[in-house]
Amino acid sequence: MASYLVTGSSRGLGLALIARLATFSKTEVGTIIATARQDNSSQLKEIVDASSGRVQLVKLDVTDALSVQEAVQAVERQLQGKGLDYLINNAGAMDWSPTGIEGMDNLTEMLNVNTTGPHIVSRAFLPLLRKGEKKTVINISTTLGSIAMVDAFRLLPSPAYKISKAALNMLTAQYAKQYANDGFTFLGISPGWLRTDLGSSRADLSVETGAEKVLDIIQQATPKQNGKFLNIHVPGWETREGANQYDGKEIPW
């Protein structure tokens, strides 16, 4: 019975991840910790209420170190002496700068949420992860953070988001290198362009598909993949025209 913690669970991909995890058998998925800055998501509360105690809601603001520490204490109580198996750093924010980098005035904010936040959370939960069997940390990234693919997405006016996700990729690599000998698996995963508030209704994939394919990767992850940046695999999307293909392969940094 593996335990999971997902940040940013009140909406979008985070909510879809919690909903899908709750459908797995208790022998496969045990305690599910849904965290969010606010606890006013009616959809998340419905999942929690219907879970017979398996899904637990914990308040956590990834940009607030005190909030994170309080969340660690709450999760430790809920795990009752057991370790945490999977940490999914999903909480994130996206900017919109019509004039491009010249009009970018929120880089610090994007870095705080998308890069520093996952660092604060990962560092704080390391003791519980060390006690877990899987010791797996997933950073939800994006192909928009790939420097090798910068030309493919040059027209999307979200420079601070791209920069912060590129920094997240390096953060993932740094953690992977430092904790490789301790049995950890740190992965960056791009969930694809999803139909969420962040991704818009014009996106390629439903959020449910994104959650399903992300969990496919997570549940098959091993320490041999430590430090990889992976794409989801959606049959039929492997060779689609345009910037987005979902082929299940490694994404260039």
Q: Report the count of strand segments.
A: 7
Strand content: 5-15%
Give the helix proportion (percent range). Answer: 25-40%
Mean pLDDT: 95
Largest sheet: 7 strands, parallel
Structural Rg? 17 Å
Supply the CATH superfamily name: NAD(P)-binding Rossmann-like Domain
Order of the strands making up the biggest sheet:
3-2-1-4-5-6-7
Low-confidence parts lasting 5 or more residues at pLDDT below 50? none
Q: Name the CATH class.
A: Alpha Beta
Number of helices: 6
Helix and strand pattern: EHEHEHEHEHEHE
Instruction: Briefly note the CATH topology name.
Output: Rossmann fold
CATH architecture: 3-Layer(aba) Sandwich
Structure report:
The chain is an alpha/beta fold and 253 residues long. It has a single domain, classed as Rossmann fold (3-Layer(aba) Sandwich). 36% of the residues lie in helices and 14% in strands. It has six helices and seven strands, in the order βαβαβαβαβαβαβ. The longest helix has 25 residues, at 107-131. The radius of gyration is 17 Å and the shape is globular. The two termini are 34 Å apart.
